[in-house]
């Protein structure tokens, strides 16, 4: 079976950074589905895992945490799917990635592919949708869908034009929130406005200065999708007393947690891999969540966020996708595969 991975941690411009690799055929057991992969997406986590260690890897490192495809075979405990079903999912960081002809995945983190999306486009939606949904409605104190408890609440999203931000803006508006988004380039400003942002501020400037241009000076919650440490003071400056901050970006070094004490601010992390990595009691929630996202996409309530498609699924196109992510200038999502 063919997969695409790396045997050597090296710069993505090196042709050895991602190469074709032969791995043993896979067989599903338990809750696993064997998936014929049609398309994948590349996310920042792919590049981080690919570069996780210097020097030689301990065996082939196969990344990839977004996929769409067709169920080929099922394990003995599977109840949600059958061979032939078209699905999409974000995978499990503790297992081999999706960059392969075939892939094993737990059915409980999988859903049927949106009917209105082809395989390429569908592959760009799972990881960002799960991350945004869990951050907004599991970590931050908001209710899913428009709800009276959300009325009048203000949310700040830092880096709204990236993959997660592009979905978070739409889900936040669907929930009835007032959404302020940060962006710094004309094209990213226009992108987040088109997604529904109420205001856009420049994250290259101090937030307290940017907020002086707005009719309010604090927000109820902040979703940080870029450089948690760099924005730590910015977030404290504009968070409402007893507000909530959620981040998906590692700090990587010491930070002054005391800074947010005076406002009794709640800080939390979001990692969409938690449920699958630890097989939590509520792991099935990701199946339910992706099923809901598919319905929202099919009904046009939210729109897909893929902006770059590379075909077919091969090492060269995966390297190109990684380059785009590592450039730090990607808007929306990049996908690799076939329709």
Automatic annotation (TrEMBL):
The keyword Aminoacyl-tRNA synthetase does not apply. Keywords: Cytoplasm, Metal-binding, NADP, Oxidoreductase, RNA-binding, Zinc. Residues 5-336 form the Enoyl reductase (ER) domain. Pfam families: ADH_N (PF08240), ADH_zinc_N_2 (PF13602). InterPro entries: ADH-like_N, ADH_Zn_typ-1, ER, GroES-like_sf, NAD(P)-bd_dom_sf, Quin_OxRdtase/zeta-crystal_CS, Zinc-ADH_QOR/CCCR. It comes from the Bacteria. The keyword DNA repair does not apply. Belongs to the zinc-containing alcohol dehydrogenase family. Quinone oxidoreductase subfamily. PANTHER family: QUINONE OXIDOREDUCTASE. This is Zinc-type alcohol dehydrogenase-like protein. It comes from Sporolactobacillus shoreicorticis.
